């Protein structure tokens, strides 16, 4: 009975240590994801300043790119 109790306590301690490592890794991953989302502008879109604004589309109209570059 004493051996069983000792094994049970050792097993429970090992499980608790493993769960603690898993929780710590999850927390680090969550923080890293938050940090990465702030760098690229978050889920709203990638912005120039990283604040989450939508990228601006430049409307060139019907001007061909060759004439803009002076190739025509």
Annotation, overall tally of beta strands: 0
As a percent range, the share of helical residues equals 55-70%
Biggest sheet overview: none
Radius of gyration: 28 Å
Number of helices: 2
Class from secondary-structure proportions: mainly alpha
Give the rounded overall mean pLDDT.
74
Query: Strand content of the residues, in percent?
Result: under 5%
Distance between the termini: 93 Å
Low-confidence stretches: none
Q: Care to describe what's here?
A:
The protein is an all-alpha fold. It has one domain (2-68). The chain is 60% helix and 0% strand. It is built from two helices and no strands. The longest helix is centred in the first third of the chain and has 39 residues, at 2-40. The model has no long low-confidence stretch (mean pLDDT 74).
In a few lines, what is going on in this structure?
The chain is 60% helix and 0% strand. By secondary structure, it is mainly alpha-helical.
Topology at a glance:
Layout: H1 2-40, H2 65-68
Features of the shown structure:
mainly alpha, 72 residues
């Amino acid at each position: 009975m004493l051996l069983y109790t000792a094994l049970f306590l050792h097993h429970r301690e090992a499980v608790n240590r493993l769960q603690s490592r898993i929780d710590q890794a999850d927390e680090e991953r969550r923080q890293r994801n938050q940090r990465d989302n702030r760098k690229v502008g978050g889920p709203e879109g990638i912005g120039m300043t990283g604040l989450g604004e939508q990228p601006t589309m430049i409307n060139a109209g019907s001007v061909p790119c060759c004439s803009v570059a002076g190739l025509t």
